[in-house]
Design brief:
single chain, mainly alpha, Methane Monooxygenase Hydroxylase, Chain G, domain 1, 5 helices, about 70% helix, flat
Length: about 120
């Protein structure tokens, strides 16, 4: 087996591991470590935390977050289309109009179902 072809890949992996681990190890060894009670206490807006950090969130929070990611990613697909609008021609234009129509229908459905209401 000829390892000459894999040498650049192994070097790249080795340098990546060194860049990731060596600074952390140096900071751990050379950095100051003077813990005390106030430094190790949880900080939340200047006063003690009044609830558990692992409290349950409302499902609507996750739904809004997922919808944001979904619509954000779909809008991100419009940038390459806008850049190549001259090359894709009328066919690409109609395809994106259909894509946007599906987006609008999905958005209207979510709005009608009340998924975007925050009460």
């Amino acid at each position: 087996m000829n390892l000459d072809q894999y040498l650049p890949i192994l070097l790249f992996i080795g340098v990546g591991v060194l860049v990731g681990i060596v600074p952390q190890a140096l900071a751990y060894v050379l950095g100051p470590n003077r813990p005390y009670a106030a430094k190790d206490s949880p900080y939340e807006c200047g006063f003690e935390a009044f609830e558990d950090a692992r409290m349950k969130f409302d499902v609507r929070y996750y739904l809004v977050a997922i919808l944001f990611i979904l619509f954000d990613l779909e809008i991100a697909f419009l940038f390459p289309w806008a850049v190549s609008l001259k090359e894709v021609g009328m066919t690409g234009f109609v395809a994106v109009l259909i894509f946007l129509a599906i987006l609008v229908v999905g958005f209207a459905y979510e709005w009608k179902k009340g998924a975007l209401d925050w009460e």
